[in-house]
Batch of 3 targets.
Target 1
Amino acid sequence: MHLVSVVLSGGAGTRLWPVSRQSYPKPFMQLGGSTLLGQAISRGQDCGTDDLIVVTNQDYFFLTRDAVNALSDAPHTQYLLEPKGRNTAPAIALAALACARHHGPDAVMLVLPADHLIPDTEAFVACALEAARQAQQGQLVVFGISPTGPETGFGYIEVEKPSRHTQKALRFVEKPDLATAQRYLASGRYYWNSGMFCFTAGAILQAMKEHAPEVLQAAENAWASSNTDNDATKFDAHTFGLQPDISIDYAVMERASNVTLVPAKFGWSDVGSWPAVAQAHPADTSGNTFVNSHATEFVAVDTTGTHIQVESHRPKVVATVGVQDLVIVDTPDALLVAHKSVAQKVKAVVDTLRDRRHESTQLPAAVRRPWGTYATLKEENGYKVKRITVSPGEALSLQYHGQRAEHWVVVQGTALVQIGDEEHRTLPGQYRYIPLKEKHRLTNIGKDELVLIEVQCGGYLGEDDIVRLADSYGRA
């Protein structure tokens, strides 16, 4: 059996703001010492997958590639880079066409979302291998999760009778209201739809030909106008956008007669809200959970059932007194305080901030770029201060700014600073001035990480005031 992992890495994770942002969404969140994306890839490897296909937005390519390369035994990976989101049916169609082309129609595709948490790897592998055996027999397999409550945020799958064994899926139903969810739970005949699937490339393509020919044809058209460079495939934005925005459940699984459900015998969470994140961490005797990225001290007095998460550039003391069942998430540029019972409404905060065009919905405090990171330390009218890091051997674009000048001070490492047509080797403690509209470039020519402080001065300091003249990462 040739088993191929297909990881779907999309979704903004707006309910996990302020950690999850548009340019740094939920799959890249660290949970349990590694990213959710990295965990999904590793689960596939544990099942014996020979190859990996990742379907993700083109803006996340470098983040995704870094997550793959960070694995101790990185798999051979093909990246399908979407110019815009188009739901799971088009994503799976594109991946199935790639899989059939490179590995043949009998290759078994294990389709995994990039933002799930599954602590019991051994139990997952056992279920996945059973799913793969069913897929080899021509079945379209979905993983079903036994409900633990009348959840209204998940789709459901009905079976004939409750069982711990593989069984035929009778119907798929969308997210129900509370009363309907309670009836589903009481009947014992419904599972949560996990969004994880398994089938051969040939079987899913045949099912699409029968039940969703418009999805398959649009995917074939998108492939016809695509461009592949090494392991990354980019799609023409116009042709890609003509694909239907439809889920694989609606397009195929609800209509096909050869759909099999494998009950999950493992713990599972889609990490869809802050209470779900809290449940993934060990709690103290009062039910509190604490997460920090630096030397944060927590003082919890008369505090119960509260999740506190701090992302800070420097040591900080966080104290709570007399609070219960709260979520407190502190990042350098945003603070969230919410009651766990209404944590789903964090999405409304993001919607409001988007209406205000607030940058905190798009960019995290520490923004990752192909060459390194930048973080805004301070911003007021007329100036902005940033901390910039550049990895060894990497370089920023050759660029200029139309509305700001910049001052650079190197504090660690060795930089090659191009200003105009001149290049300057710059060491810690040395300073360079970048005049308004002057082309410039920053390169790390040392063996260690380059760190510098940048002060921007001008009437407009937005990130879109960049004109790229040349770029190592194809962004010019």
Target 2
Amino acid sequence: MAEENSNALSTHIDMKKLWELLSIVVVTVIIWNLPTSTFGIDGLTVVQQRIIAIFVFATLSWLTECIPAWATSLSIMTIMCVTVSKNAFGVFKHDGVGDLLDSKEIMASFADPIIMLFLAGFILAIAASKSGLDTLLARNLIKPFGKKSENVLLGFLLITGLFSMFISNTATAALMLTFLTPVFAALPATGKGRIALTLSIPVAANLGGMGTPIGTPPNLIALKYLNDPAGLNMNIDFFHWMAFMTPLVIILLIISWRIILHFYPFTQKTIHLKIDGEVHRGWRMWVVIITFIITILLWVIPKDVTGIDTNTVSMLPMGIFAITGVITAKDLQEINWSVIWMVAGGFAIGLGMNGSGLADAAIESIPFGNWSPIAILAISGLICYFLSNFISNTATAALLVPILAVVCRGMGDKLGGIGGTSTILIGIAIAASTAMCLPISTPPNAIAYSTGLVKQNEMLKVGLTCGLISLILGYLLLYFIGQIHFIG
């Protein structure tokens, strides 16, 4: 029998997803054509109403996943270009529709400087994998933890967390579970040690991603709005983010270590660990090592000293690895472009809200100033945590951050008591990374669950406990720092 061509067009139709998509289109069309007075926003223009309809389409599509999340983001940008831009079809550009957007700016969402920072993270991960730098680091970093089972578990938590700060948490989880394969063979089949080690990987990968701006997409989405020159313009760089997040991540990983040991203690007291893997010995290995060191140093050293910002630094590893042949055209296929499209789609929604004047109109019409800042902080965090357990944390952040940026602008100085808008938006990044209850919650969870070594209820128990404690501690620390700034 001839093998089926995996590149052939599929003829399969998922009727459930089709009906969901059709229902979402109907709802979108209805909102698109409602009288503008329905929305209760004074002076709402036709373009702004279309942005609301597009936002509803994006929200429902991301929630139901009737089409892939990246396809939703691509649809957002396509619909915006052809209906609310200056180069839209003529039927959408009649007099009195309101301020149309620049189509170049919509398309530029995919090449935003933050996207370049994200791409640098992917490129560094590919280079580390090809050169064997990741194996070399793991092999040497685990040695100080010795052979005691509990200490080896802590070692895997901390090393996985460290890797996730600079490498995709999905790639990190896959890599670290590969290193654990020979360890499982030496552990008792009926013991809890296998469960503990397996669960340590997704927990550490999820929490570790909070440590740097490139660790996970929600960080970059929050940073985009925090540093927007036309918005908050807070100039939060790589160093400032790490100065707050890295100590928090270390504390959370140590707490998670004790939680995992509480639920799944080792019966075998020692583990003889041997990490195998090929390490490249040629000159390109030195190119990778030196480029890693230079890139991270330039990210961490403040811009005032170097004169170069974080986003521009991200171009260095891409350029160096391309010129030296460390990265080839084939390697670029390994980049998770679907995640980049998702992030870009979120940026496009934010552009639509601000560029069309919808954000300003909403601020003037809705009494955000009467809302409690603590209530906004708590409710937004809980909504993000809940949604991120069921849909992509990137999609969740892409939905919530633009809305919260508008809400926070409307609340003005009232947010000073909790540290300002930055507390709310950074809180979303924390909430998104702490959502790890289910196998579907994050890719690292799915990878760990696919090993067959953990059951869903075991992942739920550890993920819920570690996640909620991390969420609460993260928000308490945010609030505490906000209070210090407010009093100061």
Target 3
Amino acid sequence: MTDPIRHLTEAGRLGRFYGDGAWRDPAGSERAGVVNPATEAVIAEIALCGRQEVEHAVTAARRAFPAWSRTAPAERAALLDRVHGLVMERLELFAHALTAEMGAPISYARQAQVPLAAAHLRVARDLLATFPFLSQRGTTAIAREAIGVCGLITPWNWPLYQITAKVGPALAAGCTVVLKPSELSPLSALLFAEVMHEAGCPAGVFNLVNGTGPVVGEALATHPEVDMISITGSTRAGVLVAQAAAPTVKRVAQELGGKSPNLVLPDADLARCIPLGVASAMRNLGQSCSAPTRMLVPRARLAEVEALARNTVAGFRVGDPQREEMTHGAIANQAQFDRIQQMIRIGIEEGATLVAGGPGRPEGLATGLFARPTVFSAVRRDMAIAQEEIFGPVLAILPYDSVEEAVAIANDTIYGLGAHVHGTDLEQVRAVARQIRAGQVHLNAPDWDPHAPFGGYKRSGNGREYGREGLEEYLETKAILGFYQ
């Protein structure tokens, strides 16, 4: 079966939460509709849990922690291996869920959203074979131990990908978890809980509580028995979670907003890097915190860049995400669609040059949350579209007159999550990359690396995900003096 709604309905999952190894009915009756953004129709209802369900899940996770944290790394790796296998076996079911809940084109869900999510599980599994949980420094032992119960708060834009990026390393470290996915895109999370159960995850090690940020998110952040919160979301949400967590002095890892630059150096091959840059900015319809939505280009080559960008956008196909030929689907929810339309209008009002797209839906699409991929040029660094995170298919092209000015523009933001640099002189590309204040920099469009740590400088957050650093985020460090004598 590839119909996620039918599957979850027949299994009785939609109105329940997963806690202590079983599917359970919440105490309350509050529900939330799941909207298919391509049709704007409510396709399902999920249970909205509250503090009572959070208490149940945290208690289960706390009870399960001592035994799970003492398991051998090979045992934890075996569980992650089973989970990885089940996710890949159900790729079609997950892909259709992502298309239904957040508008991802079915081809993109198959090729990126699901397999990249599975890669996080594979990396966490493989790290366990070599990670030094105990090492020697003179006569002192350095022990790396699981931090405890972790509350994991994930967003709506990469639902499954962000779940595995947190659950994989947390379980690998020996932590137990309570997952709160976005209530706007909860279907893939419910399917993932099924996978965890069928993989034989011990009771209490993994728990899922659907609900809103102000209720479930706050309950996790303030709970004295939760040792760590990992949140991916807006900078505003990250600040609220950190404030709520402060009285209990728990660790808070935040992967937040971004306004990433794509710095095109004067010697760059424009025919290659501009189409790649536009496509990267519009990947997932720009609904990625690290999307390189500020393209910095030499002023003398601005006309060439505009033509290449315009031609690239002309090749996009926006429409029904169930159709294989569509490159871009629908914006994930109404609030985000409205935000994108507002920012496009602001860009026009600010006097930026509209190269492609504009406000409204693409021609021929009267319903559905479909936005026009939009490119602005001659953008000044003080414009709102150059400073504010839009989180949609809107690219701002900013001209510069020197490489030094370009670096200054790249760093002229409150964010510091990602960046891109393009050029043919590799030494210059490397030197520029070292000057950019961001947690991850891509040079000349390299392949994605699931082992590369990911996280932000400045208001893009703190902590790291992916690879070894992502695993270390869930560990405490203990020094045992005199261990070796």
